[in-house]
């Protein structure tokens, strides 16, 4: 059922509690990627222009209910003010009398950023008392934190039980794009799954077999499939508990007529580092004490060809250890193929997005999702609690 959005409600003069995902990467106090902040600007500007009193709330890192000085949102407030082109009032806490007074002082169009909501013990416990305290600050709840929509926390889910609750424009865009991609996909639809989180990704592959025409496997996931087929994989990453499941996916793909591709050649290394010795081998040639670290040139070509012919491509997880240059060619080839295909491309997952940025190809993709875990859970077909709690249209 579709959810009400911020466009469907009256916001002028209202106090609006907007949950955003400002969980951005920071090194030495500097924000190294401000994508998640930039992506919320349409919602914030929409509310400012309509004359709402905007109260922003976000988590930042995992402080586990304690105040952690390095996890204050102060650098985020400065970055937001710069990107928004207007001043942002920064609160030192996220609930209580001081915040109430700050909210009472807001004029229409003002923006207040609350402190990290995870400094409160009740946030991750979805404590109704905390949800109520957040709700008392506002007349309306807007959830724009797609990246945290898979979390049922006080500021993402609990608050929606106390005041009217609608989606923000980023949330709406993410759900629309991912929903269209998965519910009524343009065909051929190619799903590319790589990375190292074998357990997490296996569940996604199962759902993809029901909807995709081509499933391309790469990265650390590949070796569980190769081993399941009886190949020697040396010291490569593997999940020995998922071998039977992996084999059943290959069978299921055959039954369903899904073109399920596993690497046909591999870059192997004798150790994990830029100074490793490497070789390109076939799937039966992995030496016992070497590990698979990237897809090989034949696989790159094969995958690029499938991507070029696709109408829709959803990519989650790098093809190899792209952070180390000699092992980045597979991921680069897939990113390049996604950048040049005429099909619609959706990139989900922090590392695939980071790789795409690194290769300066991000602006050639159709949709870079702001959610890693959230987009995966969505692709698995799971309901996202932060969305379920919003008011239906
Ligand atoms: N063959 C491999 N062996 C070990 N690690 C790999 C391999 N291929 C890719 N990786 C690693 O997987 C990580 C990304 O995995 P993951 O978190 O599952 O992806 P994402 O964040 O895109 O969902 C990267 O750090 C990459 O170096
Ligand atoms: O960065 C996030 O996760 P992601 O890297 O899976 O997208 C989200 O902000 C959620 O954070 P959490 O996994 O600490 O709940």
What do these coordinates show?
With 393 residues, this protein is an alpha/beta fold. Helices cover 34% and strands 17% of the residues. The chain has 15 helices and 17 strands. The chain has helices spanning 35-38, 41-49, 74-84, 97-104, 122-125, 128-135, 169-183, 198-208, 222-228, 243-256, 297-308, 329-340, 350-358, 373-379, 385-388; strands at 15-19, 26-27, 30-31, 53-57, 89-90, 111-113, 140-143, 165-167, 189-193, 214-217, 259-261, 265-269, 278-282, 291-295, 312-316, 344-348, 367-368. The protein has a six-stranded parallel sheet with strand order 5-6-4-1-7-8. A six-stranded parallel sheet has the order 11-10-9-15-16-17, with helices on both faces. Strands 13-12-14 form a three-stranded antiparallel sheet. The radius of gyration is 23 Å and the shape is elongated. The model has no long low-confidence stretch (mean pLDDT 95). The chain binds adenosine-5'-diphosphate and 1,3-bisphosphoglyceric acid. Adenosine-5'-diphosphate (ADP) is lined by residues 195-197, 219-220, 237, 292-293, 316-318, 320-321, 323, 349-352, 372. Monomer. InterPro entries: Phosphoglycerate_kinase, Phosphoglycerate_kinase_CS, Phosphoglycerate_kinase_N, Phosphoglycerate_kinase_sf. Pathway: Carbohydrate degradation; glycolysis; pyruvate from D-glyceraldehyde 3-phosphate: step 2/5.
